[in-house]
Design goal:
Chain lengths: 120, 225
């Protein structure tokens, strides 16, 4: 039962992790993001994935070494962690979009100001 | 010349620059970027013979400087200079800077008020040195006056230099971007003229806290992509 909850957690969160990785690769391939961002994004998502894949092993290790005395994963925890991963995915996408938009608004403002002033 | 609510001094500053250029072999177009001032900065600047670019929205010194340099780049300027509109720079230092950049073959020349800091208050010296130290820690750029507004740009710098911050923190970010673009950066001494007006307009040490916060954020963002 415990194993199935960890598996459930992975099944629930995997689509967001895959979407995050795909989005980072796509942005890089279409030239909207630099290589540095691609690498940073891949590292972040792979770390999240590794953490979730090894969640059970980490819990068991902590428990046997008496570093934690909490109960193992509950269904509520599964939902909560999935929500956190989903929110992280959304925030990450929004941050990138906001930065791109901010840059474009700045450039637009600059160009409009120059063109209007030259016309006067 | 980025300007925000400088109607009290902008006319005199433009007149001084025009006078200085008349004694030099250079032809200059004075461009004032009026950063949506609430006073008559734009009207006065135009009256005194400057080309005025009116920002529609107030966007900060960094953004206004970027607009001015973009205008210079689009109009094929060989060399561009930025200076503060509050009258704290001596117009003759602009000519000296142009002579120096031609002689040295640099891409970005910073007019440093701290090579000889005579006339500068202790708090300003501490604030500016502190920001230069932060610039060194974050970006590895050794500058005695990373916040100086008097800067001379080569054509190569005009073509390649872009920054992302729009406030006063652009001063440090510009040096960082110049380093990334492998531009040749150097400094020359200038004097700062502190009047009651320029003292009231300049950055205070509390602004420095904001600048540091923004620079750290920018550095982290670059690291995290």
């Amino acid at each position: 039962m415990i194993f199935s909850r960890y598996l459930l957690l992975l099944i629930f969160t995997l689509p967001f992790i895959v979407a995050g990785i795909l989005s980072a690769i796509t942005q890089y391939k279409i030239g909207r993001a630099p290589r540095k961002r691609l690498i940073a994004q891949l590292i972040v998502w792979i770390v999240v994935l590794a953490g979730l894949v090894s969640a059970e092993s980490i819990y068991n290790w902590l428990f046997t070494n008496k570093l934690t005395d909490t109960d193992s994963l509950s269904l509520f925890d599964v939902i909560q962690i999935t929500s956190i991963v989903l929110l992280f995915y959304i925030t990450n996408q929004m941050r990138f979009k906001l930065r791109t938009l901010e840059r474009r608004v700045q450039d637009l403002h600059q160009e409009i100001s120059i063109r209007l002033s030259v016309k006067k | 010349m980025p300007a925000f609510n400088e109607s009290g001094v902008i006319g005199d500053v433009i007149s001084d620059v025009i006078k200085s250029f008349k004694t030099s072999p250079y032809f200059a177009e004075i461009v004032v970027v009026n950063d949506a001032s609430r006073d008559d900065t734009g009207i006065i600047a135009k009256k005194y013979g400057a080309t005025v670019i009116d920002h529609i929205l107030n966007s900060g010194a960094g953004s206004a400087t970027a607009t001015g340099l973009s205008y210079a780049q689009q109009n094929g300027f060989d060399i561009a200079t930025t200076m503060d509109a509050d009258g704290q720079h001596d117009a003759m230092d602009v000519i000296k800077g142009i002579d120096e950049i031609i002689k040295r073959g640099d891409d970005l020349l910073i007019g440093s008020r701290l090579i000889d800091s005579k006339g500068m208050s202790k708090s300003k010296i501490i604030g500016n040195k502190g920001l230069s130290a932060i610039t060194y820690i974050l970006f590895g750029i050794n500058s005695t006056d990373s916040q100086s507004g008097l800067r001379i740009f080569s054509r190569r710098a005009l073509e390649s230099l872009r920054w992302k911050t729009s406030g006063y923190e652009f001063c440090s970010e510009m040096l960082w971007r110049a380093k990334q673009q492998k531009l040749r950066i150097s400094e020359y001494p200038i004097k700062a003229i502190y009047t009651d007006y320029s003292k009231s307009k300049g950055q205070n040490n509390w602004n420095a806290v904001n600048i540091i916060k923004s620079l750290i954020k920018r550095r982290l963002e670059e690291l995290l992509g």
